[in-house]
Amino acid sequence: MSVPCTTEELLTSQLRALGVTEGGVLMVHASLRALGRPTGGADTVLRALLAAVGPTGTLVVPSFTTDNSDSSPEFRKRVAGLDEAGVQRVRETMPPFDAGSTPAPLMGVLSETVRLSREALRSDHPQTSFAALGPYAEKIASAHRPDCHLGEDSPLARLYELDAQVLLLGTGYDRCTAFHLAEYRVPSAPYRNYSCVITEGGARTWWTYWDVVLDDSDFAALGADFEREVPGAVRAGQVGEAHCRLLGLPDAVDFAVRWMPTHRTP
């Protein structure tokens, strides 16, 4: 039995059937591998998403970077087993963040395709930037305070205000970045130091800042409870060959604010 070709038109119709709002704001976490093999690859998926939200809609993707940080889990994996001199050599080769050119390979092919789009705007945070296309791109991407990963001075708070939707396109709740906004809104949120390489005054500089502890280790459980306990809050369906979920970002964040204090150890 032959598998139907996953075309732009088919993807667009499936996205609309799932409930993507035309003229709305949509944040996407995508696995192109889960989608199958769309004709034209990531470019086709991007066009389908833009067609689904329409010319007055806005598309947003996370464009996070870790290659310039020595406080990330990826860095710890990279230097595991190295002596102090080896760790220092790694730190000396780490490139400073540049919003215009620093890639975000861990975010996936679709995210990079959006970031590299000529009309895309990217926020300036050296660790947790977002890339956006559409009428609200500037509102979402501007004023991302460098010492606020994903809180009130980040694109996530703007997405909350804009009543954005979140599309998990072949990914799970463990990738649902929106839940991080709740970590800033729970009482007595814990803080820690973060460190990364930036360019300051034309020179490569290490910068350390104090921000909320980010922990996505329980997001899968959080998302499962959200889907079970808030009937109708999540729409599930197929796009291409991928199982997908569509949810309202404010609903997800508000539920997480209630969930975290009773499910996380202080």
Shape: globular
**What is the averaged pLDDT score?**
94
Percentage of residues assigned to helices = 25-40%
The Rg value, from CA coordinates, equals: 19 Å
| Terminal-residue CA separation | 54 Å
Helix-strand topology string:
HEHHEHHHEEHHEHEEHEEH
Strand order of the largest sheet: 3-4-2-1-5-9-8
Low-confidence stretches: none
Q: What profile does the largest beta sheet have?
A: 7 strands, mixed
Q: Give the helix/strand class.
A: alpha+beta
Strand content: 15-25%
Number of DSSP strand runs: 9
- Number of H- or I-type helical stretches: 11
- The number of domains is 1
Explain this structure.
It is a single chain. This protein has 266 residues and is α+β, with helices and mostly antiparallel strands. It has one domain (8-263). The chain is built from eleven helices and nine strands. Strands 3-4-2-1-5-9-8 form a seven-stranded mixed sheet. A hairpin with a 2-residue loop joins strand 8 and strand 9 (242-248). The longest helix is centred in the last third of the chain and has 15 residues, at 249-263. The mean pLDDT is 94.
Topology:
Elements: H1 8-18, E1 25-30, H2 32-35, H3 41-53, E2 58-62, H4 73-79, H5 84-93, H6 109-115, E3 121-122, E4 130-133, H7 137-141, H8 155-161, E5 165-169, H9 179-185, E6 191-200, E7 203-212, H10 219-229, E8 234-239, E9 242-248, H11 249-263
